[in-house]
Design brief:
Strand order of the largest sheet: 1-2-9-6-5-3-4
Strand content: 15-25%
Distance between the termini: 50 Å
Oligomer: single chain
Shape: globular
Largest sheet: 7 strands, mixed
Order of helices and strands: EEHEHEHEHEHEEEHHHHHHHHEEEEH
Radius of gyration: 20 Å
Length: 367
């Protein structure tokens, strides 16, 4: 695979490369190029990733550092909390990490989010790198500098904006990804196209066979384009102050509510897909998209094996859960709606009735 690098830059604020490769062979080179050679490095990963990639990554980083240690936590969303971060702090202290040291997040979104949060808060901030190994983390969570953990029943309620020094993607890790997790990543990838690039969205759907067999010649350009879109939005609004970055929340209000009420038994990308259906429904009822476009959104999700309906939940409970979402603005939820395929905007005027109708459109029954 030809060396491929995308730079995420906001002048005077941050600049870092996203590296696209088919193995870990260039990891030490790029880490050193970011000025991180000779530093103590602590690699953070979960119990699923540990036997797959931890030793490979540690061996690579040992080329540029005399002190490479690791911290492994139990896999799953249930570990994404302050208790795990506290254990990580203990490991950082015991390894005598200082302000010049580096954390390396090896794994999926849970690992990246909690590692980034620990980096942002340890000694008031140290550098970290993202080494995403899932499709979801490659197209979404590893890029943009949003870090955080869940607090009690509130998803991502405690966090910080903290940009990585490097994002290194090894596409070969996607070959070992369980089908459920691959589909989850497709939920976020399709979301990115719906936000601002209808041609990309439709091209992904047209290449479903190559993408689903994980052909790197087809999948890699799709991942890169998704990163380009997100990087462009993040560079304009890194801390979600102007409203531009809020576009990346398309599908997340209803999605997060379903995810929480299902006790995280559904993947994040699957829940985002359900949220996309809800947002498309509101957009259709407002006349922002027509029936054909609405069906196109649902069909695209189904093409990649993502469910467009869910059972065992009550519409009222989902509505109530959306009110606990951190995207509230003066007591109202900032929804992201569609004005055509690939053209989205934020709106804080969505009513409870509109939300209930949208929620009921994705329920196969109502508990």
């Amino acid at each position: 695979m030809r060396l491929n690098v995308l730079h995420v830059t906001r002048p005077g604020y941050f600049s870092y490369p996203i590296v696209f490769q088919n193995d870990f062979s260039k990891l030490s080179d790029f880490t050193a190029a970011c000025g991180l050679d000779g530093k103590k490095i602590l690699v953070v990963c979960d119990s699923n990733v540990e036997p797959l990639y931890l030793e490979q990554v540690k061996q690579q980083l040992m080329n540029i550092s005399e002190s490479v240690s690791s911290f492994v936590f139990p896999a799953g969303e249930s570990s994404k909390n302050l208790e795990t971060v506290s254990h990580l702090y203990d490991a950082m202290v015991s390894q005598k990490l200082d302000r010049g040291s580096v954390l390396a997040a090896l794994g999926g979104g849970v690992t990246g989010d909690l590692t980034g949060f620990a980096a942002a808060t340890y000694m008031r901030g140290i550098r970290y790198i993202q080494i995403p190994t899932t499709l979801l983390s490659q197209v979404d969570s590893s890029v943009g500098g949003k870090t955080g953990v869940d607090f009690r029943h509130y998803k991502n309620m405690v966090g910080a904006f903290w940009q990585p020094a490097l994002v290194y993607m090894n596409f070969s890790t996607l070959a070992s990804l369980p089908e459920r997790e691959f589909k989850s990543g497709m939920g976020e990838l399709l979301k990115t196209g719906l936000i601002c690039d209808g041609e990309f969205f439709r091209n992904v759907v047209a290449n479903v066979e190559g993408i689903c067999r994980r052909d790197p010649e087809i999948l890699a350009p799709a991942v890169r384009r998704s990163c380009e879109i997100k990087a462009s939005i993040v560079a304009k609004d890194p801390e979600e102050k102007t409203g531009i970055r809020a576009l990346l929340n398309l599908g997340h209000t209803i999605g997060h509510a379903v995810e929480k009420l299902k006790d995280f038994s559904l993947s994040h990308g699957q829940c985002v897909a359900l949220g996309l259906c809800g947002c498309a429904y509101i957009s259709k009822t407002r006349g922002l998209i027509d029936e054909t476009e609405y069906r196109e959104v649902l069909s695209a999700l189904e093409t990649f094996g993502l469910d467009t309906s869910v059972s065992g939940l009550c519409a009222g409970d989902i509505l109530q859960a959306t009110r606990l979402d951190k995207k509230m603005d003066n007591g109202r939820i900032r929804y992201v709606l569609m004005k055509g395929i690939g053209n989205c905007f934020t709106d804080a005027s969505v009513t409870d009735q509109e939300q209930l109708d949208a929620i009921r459109s994705i329920l196969t029954d109502e508990a």
